Amino acid sequence: MKSAVFTLLLMVGLAGSAAAQKQDRHAELPGTGEPTQARVDELTRQMCNSLRLNEAQYIRLRSANQIKLARQEEISWQYKDNIAEQRAKLSELESQYEAECGRILTPSQLSLFHAEQQRDMPLTTDPLEGGLG
Questions:
Q1: What pLDDT is recorded for position 36?
Q2: Which end is more exposed in the chain, N or C (fewer Cβ atoms within 10 Å of the end residue's Cβ)?
Q3: Of 12-26, 30-44, 54-68, 89-103, which gets the smallest average pLDDT?
Q4: Coiled-coil region(s) at which residues (predicted)?
Q5: How many domains are there within the chain?
Q6: Which of 125, 118, 114, 65 is nearest to 93 (CA)?
Q7: What does each C-alpha distance from 24 to 19, 33, 122 come to in angstroms?
Q8: Are 69 and 43 contacting, i.e. CB atoms less than 8 angstroms apart?
C-alpha cells in the first residue's frame, strides 16, 4: 500500500515538473503555442459554409487549419528578422496546406476554394520591384 501511494506521489511530482517546463518553454518562445480554438473554429466554419463540407471533411479540414495556423504563428515569430526567409517558409506552408486540401475536398469544392483564395488575396506591390531605373 505504501509503495502504491509513493508511486502515485512520484507520478504527480513528475507531471507537475513537466508542466512547469512546458510553461517555461512557451514563455521563452512567444507565438509558438496553439492557435485559439475560436480562430480555428471560425476559419473552418467559414470554409464549411462556402464549400458545403460534409462532417468528415469538416473534421479533417479543422485539423489541417489548426496545424496551418500554428505553423504560421511559429514561422512569423521564428523568422521575424528575415522577411525573405519568412515569405519563403509561409509560401511552402501554403503549398502544403493546398495539397492537404486537395486530399480532403472534392474537385468542385477545390475549384471553389481556389477561386476564393484568388478573390481574397490582397494585391500587394513592392515599390522596389519592377520599377525603372
A1: 85
A2: C
A3: 12-26
A4: 76-103
A5: 1
A6: 65
A7: 9, 12, 37
A8: yes
Distances (CA, A) of 129 to 36, 79, 102, 133: 36, 22, 32, 11
Three-state secondary structure readout of 3-68: HHHHHHHHHHHHHHHHHHHHHHHHHHCCCCCCCCHHHHHHHHHHHHHHHCCCHHHHHHHHHHHHHH
Predicted pLDDT at 119: 84
Please name the helix (run of DSSP H) or strand (run of DSSP E) that holds residue 131, with its range, or none.
none
Q: Tell me, yes or no, whether 42 lies in a domain.
A: yes
**Residue 12: band (very low, low, confident or very high) from pLDDT cuts 50, 70, 90:** low
Q: Quick check: is 126 in a domain?
A: no
122 in a structural domain: no
Domain hosting 72: range is: 30-108
Question: What confidence tens digit (pLDDT) does each residue in 35-50 have?
Answer: 788 999 999 999 999 9
Distance CA 52, CA 45 (A): 10
Residue 132 DSSP one-character state: -
Q: Residue 67 carries which side chain, given as an amino acid letter?
A: I
